[in-house]
Amino acid sequence: MSQIGKIIVDTHIKGIPLYQIVSAGFDQDHPLKRGVSFDKELLSPGEYDENGKLVTRMQARISIMLFNDVINKAKKNKVLSKKYNDFKSFTDKRRFILDNKDKLNSLAYRVPTQGQNSTMAIEIVDVLPATQGGIIQLPTTLTALTGADFDIDKLFTATYNYTVTDKGIERINYREKYNNIEDLIEHMDELSLEQRENLLLDIYQTVLTSEDNRLHTTTPLDVCTAPIKRVMTKEMEDNSEKNNSDGFSLNPAHQV
Fold first, then answer.
1. Cβ atoms within 10 A of the Cβ of 161, count?
2. What is d(CA 151, CA 143) in angstroms, rounded to the nearest whole number?
């Protein structure tokens, strides 16, 4: 058990907290774009994109600050530095990230995490300038899904570990020496910390994008809490007069 705790429970996956901002109205004339062309609409799992492809992840525009680490690694690569103009401008950095975006899918979750609908597999469709701070934009459906009300709502991210080659970004591979999952599990203690973190993220994302879990990941939080609220409201109304004098308004049933 102590070994399990060391390898799995005590693993701290890197990421940064991001403030959620509305995506509605974020069109070509929005002042945030600063001359950069952004897509107008973000899609949710279950929707189809313009090419008729089923979307399985929550699409997001996200602060380029999330990728500072991998950009700094790329700056040290002569081939990439030449290709992306030494990463001098946001436009250069953005081009690098979008060229590699298929490998940069990550995870976002809210605290408190109340279920699979509080955790999202993220598809990076664009990045936002660091000058705008640590922000993230998600589809408007997230408002109903998690109860976001934009009172400085914050989402936490979890990102993979990467290496940078002349070809671009590569995730650190944990399967190259193992033929199957059973072999991998048997030699789990031989994996590096970065490999274990990437393995955990793959497991999380497999669960969140599975058709078998679609109901859990797309059911709004209020679907679960609304029936409780109705029951407690009736309880409050039935007992408010006789309990008002002894502090019933402080009862959790009343607070709901």
1. 19
2. 12
Q: What is the rounded distance in angstroms from the CA atom of residue 256 to the CA atom of residue 248?
A: 12
State how far the alpha carbon of 109 is from the alpha carbons of 62, 95, 157, in Å. 14, 26, 6
Tell me if 16 sits within 8 A of 157, measured CB to CB. yes
Helices then strands, counting H and E runs in the chain, come out as 10, 8
**DSSP helix/strand/coil, 126:** strand
1: its two tokens:
């058990």
The type of residue at 234 is K
Specify the pLDDT at position 89.
Answer: 94
Question: Token pair for residue 155?
Answer: 């989402």
Helix (H) or strand (E) holding 155: strand 154-158
Q: Are 121 and 52 in contact (CB under 8 A)?
A: no
| pTM reported for the whole predicted model | 0.74
Give dist(CA 131, CA 90) in Å, integer: 10
State pLDDT tens for residues 143-174: 767 666 666 678 889 999 999 999 999 999 98
- 3-state DSSP assignment of residue 217: helix
Element at 131 (helix H, strand E) = none
